[in-house]
Amino acid sequence: MDSSPQSFLARHDFLIRRLHSLSGLIPVGAYMVVHLVTNASVLESPAAFQKNVYTIHSLGSLLPVVEWGGIFIPILFHAIIGMVIVAGGMPNSNQYRYGANYRYVLQRATGMIAFLFIMVHVFHMHGWFHADVWLENVANPLGGAQFKAYNASSTAGLALQNYVWVAFYLVGVLSCVYHLANGIWTMGITWGVWTSPAAQARASAVCTVVGILLGVVSLGALFGMRNVGQGEGLQEALQVEDQLYQHKVESGELVPNEHKRTQPAESNEEELAVVKVKEDAK
User: Fold this and answer.
1) Mean pLDDT of the chain
2) pTM for this one?
């Protein structure tokens, strides 16, 4: 009989698995839904998306606390525990050929893809850390920190013009969507919400609909953002962003911060003149 002491994870397996399951829904899953819907507001207009970004950044000094406490730390916890769980199990789709088992394998595969995607995405758009020394010497030279909060749609759109990035985001976002939608179903089983085959079938149908809807929203956000970074759409976005920035600065709602902008207002004059000529010609 093996009398060796159990590891911390083994001793607290029940609690850790439930915390892992819960963190996947709240706050990680909830944040993902809000993030996708916010990004999809660019389909309404660059102004709508920019206003949403201003609302988020109105948290000021509380924003890093919210980001780390409510987003990054829960994501890291969920991802690390997920990796531990994956390391302790073997996919068995070749032995048991039925739908639930393939969902089991896909859940773990998309979880690993999603974690890699999130890490690269945060670096690509935000550079991981906001310290100027880090941004200037590490993030920017490596092509990171492309997103500027006060030029939200235009910078995000420009960052998505490369087809390789588009393909990467397409796979990553859809992996996140599948992992959340199927994760809701598995969470219900873990927590004993649906235990009978009939209840599980109904829950599966609902989660499938949720996944499809989130997939549509995510694709709309991705390609809507990319379209803003092209041609006249880019020029119009820059104009709107500049007008909103100047209005907020003049009204005292915003402290001037050129680090969160692509360029000062006056350097947009040539681009804005092109937009005006086109508008006058209509």
Assistant:
1) 85
2) 0.83
